[in-house]
Amino acid sequence: MDLGINGKTAIVCAASKGLGRGCAEALAAAGVDLVINARSAGPLEAAAAEIAAAYGVKVVPVAADIATQDGRAKVLAAVPSPDILVNNAGGPPPGMWHDWEREDFIKALDANMLAPIAMMKAVLPAMMAQGWGRVVNITSQSVKSPIAVLGLSNSARAGLTGYVAGTSRQVASKGVNINNLLPGIHATDRAISLDQGVVAAQGISMAEAKAQRAATIPAGRYGTREEFGAMCAFLCSEKAGFIVGQNILLDGGAVNATL
Ligand code: NAP
Asked: Does any ligand 1 atom lie closer than 6 A to the CB of residue 89?
């Protein structure tokens, strides 16, 4: 399928590996020039070179912490008016409801709610003025079904989801579509670190922890970054102009709900 976005420009935040990298690669495969971001310069520059070589698009790496105002300014300086924005950042650490103090919540809100909101505020006016834009926010299945050990994520992402629900409907008439992608368990470093938490808590092996978590997914396996990226690229495509303010689960059926 021709996604109709060849030659457009995208910012993909937190994209040196994992789900952000999957989104960057799928957009590059559709002919989109990229600004990609992560905090560590080495892996980010390697990712940019690999994506540019594989897909023949322009890829500019910007090493910065997207959870900070300075970091966002650096990323936006590379392309102030992108056609496409994919918001992403690392997820908050696990714990239990009684573990977190105000500072822990502020960190989670900065990374997983306020950073994507600030990025949207920065790019939406130009998208609306040109009559076309796409924003995808990477959130979590925890928005639909809370994950006990990820209370910081449950909380911060719920705030972003509310903002998107209202904002997406105010910009849609200008050709700008904002949607959220909700990953269930995917085979990335984040999943490995959560598996390690299960190993430590239950005294089981890594293979047992992975099998235990895979058994909670009707598909019987973790998702891949390629599958995730393909859905992201579709939501960023010309074909997705009638999809507004949706929360799309990619979880192998893990959330047991009719709707
Ligand atoms: P990952 O494999 O650990 O990759 C995270 C990427 O984000 C890396 O490129 C990392 O590079 C970058 N990053 C992290 N914090 C950043 C920051 N503050 N500023 C800029 N870049 C940053 O993680 P993932 O599995 O792709 O997860 C992506 C998001 O999806 C997370 O918010 C996670 O909680 C959520 N999620 C993931 C899963 C899953 O199963 N994988 C499920 C539900 C939700 P640097 O470290 O160099 O910055």
From this structure: yes
Is any atom of ligand 1 closer than 6 Å to the C-beta of 66? yes
**Which of 39, 65, 180, 250 maximizes ligand 1 atoms within 8 Å of its Cβ, making it the mutation to test the pocket?**
39
Q: Please tell me the distance from the alpha carbon of residue 65 to that of residue 75, in angstroms, as a whole number.
A: 9
222 CA closest ligand 1 atom index? 40
Which tokens hold the place of 41? 């310069």
* Alpha-carbon gap, residue 112 to 67, rounded angstroms: 8
Q: Are 85 and 119 in contact (CB under 8 A)?
A: yes
Task: Indicate whether residue 39 lines ligand 1 (CB < 6 A).
Answer: yes
Distance of CA 250 to the CA centre of its chain: 12
Task: Look up residue 137 and give its two tokens.
Answer: 């926010």
Share of the chain above pLDDT 90, in %: 96
CA distance 58 to 52: 6
Q: Pick from 66, 39, 184, 183: which is nearest to 120 by CA?
A: 66
Report pLDDT digits (tens) over 30-67: 999 999 999 999 999 999 999 999 999 999 999 999 99
Q: Is 108 in the pocket of ligand 1 (CB under 6 A)?
A: no
* Residue 157 near residue 140 (C-beta atoms within 8 A): yes
- In angstroms, what is the span from residue 174 Cα to ligand 1's centroid? 31
Q: What is the dihedral of CA 64, 66, 68, 70, to 10 degrees?
A: 50
- Ligand 1: atom nearest CA of 66 is 19
Calpha distance 88→136 (Å, rounded) = 9
- 3-state DSSP assignment of residue 146: coil
pTM: 0.97
